[in-house]
Amino acid sequence: MKFDLRGAIFGASSRPMKRAGLLFLLLMTLLCGPLPAADAGREYVIIVGGVSLWQWEKYKAAPHDNWWMNFVRAARIRTQQIQSENPNAQITWVVFRPAYLARAKQENNDLISHIQSVRDTFHTKLVWFDKTQELIDYINAGQSRTQVKICDLEYFGHSNRACWMFDYSANLDSASKCWLHEDELKKINRGLFTRDAFVKSWSCHTGESMSRKWKSATGASMIGAIGKTQYMTDELPVLSSDNGKWVK
Predict the structure, then answer these.
(1) For position 30, what pLDDT does the model report?
(2) Which distant-in-sequence residues (6+ apart) come within 8 Å of 138 by Cβ?
(3) Most-buried pick from 42, 90, 171, 202 (CB within 10 A)?
(4) β-pairing verdict for 158-159 and 163-165
(5) Residues 88 and 40: beta-carbon distance below 8 Å
(6) What is the per-residue pLDDT across 40-66, written as a single tens digit (0 to 9) for each?
(7) Rounded Cα–Cα distance for residues 122 and 97 (Å)
């Protein structure tokens, strides 16, 4: 059967025109491969907590955060993984700014610009937060959550069994003044996450309590650690406690 493309385009009937359109799409698919899948309705949210200050940590046998990129590096590794799996991924970094401003003074180094350069290199969105409510506001309404659901949310930073601690040992020695506690999780709206959402806290101890509270509050399961985690240079954080494990 011979198909008259000219007649299909210029003929009066709309049916031949539809056939011509389908034929064109089929031809382009065969020549160029399938078109990239749009990912506009799914967002990856990577939360980066703050690092400690040497003025508090230098006296400890095992000081925290010798390297200012402790959490930034891990977030960058994870970003590269996501982009290798999904080049169209819509990734947003939500970073606790005050700790990096404070650490910048210690380092005599413009850490804010360094973090912005990661954004530019990997073409991600960067959102700073100074208070916990600003983080919650972004999760709830940083985008229209009726149109853009969160398909992935991950946290890199300090924590204990009940909360993420964004400024641990940055304002007070071995303490925090800015955190997201498990009892505050009810402030996060339900219905924000896709059904297949991947949620993970890469920090210490959150699998011991906070993960359960997260599921109850948001409806999405969160993977957390039993025991401590160790941040690495060239790989994602690993479990570092005897009998440690990842749980939901």
Answers:
(1) 47
(2) 45, 92, 94, 127, 129
(3) 202
(4) antiparallel
(5) no
(6) 899 999 999 999 999 989 889 889 999
(7) 19
